[in-house]
Design brief:
The protein is 80% helix and 0% strand. By secondary structure, it is mainly α. The chain starts with a helix and ends with a helix. It is flat. The protein has helices at 2-43, 49-64, 67-77, 87-112, 116-124, 129-144, 146-159, 173-183, 187-216. The longest helix has 42 residues, at 2-43. Helix 2 crosses helix 4. The protein has a single domain (2-216), classed as MetI-like (MetI-like fold, Orthogonal Bundle), CATH 1.10.3720. The chain has 9 helices and no strands.
Length: 220
């Protein structure tokens, strides 16, 4: 406990700033990732085989490629194609692409749980395909994937540690722990504090997801 107290006395503000950066990277990656994933899932419903095939390839690539490999490609390979992206946007882009692929896949599974009779009923009422997707399909699909999306958000938050692999202008939690471990003998205490922050953040996300799922659940 003495080491932890000394660590928080010396580096408390740094840990707070690192936690805020971790939350920022998580949020600015998750929101566009979800929106892009919803768009991909909706476009995969169109009766256009080439488009559906291309989007399926997109999902499979970014769902299965290691995030660190994707980050390395963006940071070190794209400059060879005269495409240079700064370090922070590179991390955000990496997490956004991965998030969008998983979101699209989860939504596809959610869409497949909707009975075809509901689509037929909507068509018999004169609803257009876009209306059916927005009023019938998407609300039910989103309701059914609250828990998987909660887990995805937690995984995305943990994946922000990718930023520790780059000379970031700021330090998220993992990078801060590495610096403290290299500069002092407080590495174990720093790891314990960072791990606690990760766990608490994950528990808060899980709690919020459970509350949301309860609110949107049809059978309570």
């Amino acid at each position: 406990m003495g080491e932890v107290s000394r660590l928080l006395t010396d580096h408390g503000p740094a840990f707070w700033q690192a936690l805020l950066l971790t939350w920022k990277l998580t949020l600015v990656s998750f929101v566009p990732g979800v929106l892009l994933g919803v768009l991909v899932a909706v476009l995969r419903l169109l009766p256009l085989p080439p488009l559906r095939w291309a989007l399926s390839v997109y999902v499979e690539i970014f769902r299965n490629i290691p995030s660190v490999a994707l980050l390395i490609f963006i940071v070190f390979a794209l400059p060879d194609l005269n495409i240079v992206i700064d370090y922070e946007p590179s991390v955000i882009l990496t997490l956004t692409l991965v998030c969008s692929a998983f979101t699209a896949d989860y939504l596809r599974a959610g869409i497949n749980t909707i009975p075809g009779s509901q689509i037929e009923a909507a068509l018999s009422l004169g609803m257009r395909p876009l209306q059916i997707v927005s009023a019938v399909v998407l609300p039910q699909a989103l309701r059914s994937v609250v828990q998987p999306m909660t887990s995805l958000l937690i995984a995305l938050m943990l994946s922000t540690s990718l930023a520790s692999q780059l000379p970031f202008p700021g330090r998220e939690l993992t990078a801060l722990v590495s610096k403290i471990a290299n500069d002092s003998a407080l590495g174990i205490a720093a790891f314990a504090v960072a791990a606690t922050m990760y766990v608490v953040t994950g528990l808060l996300i899980a709690w919020a997801g459970a509350v949301l799922e309860k609110k949107v659940r049809i059978l309570r």
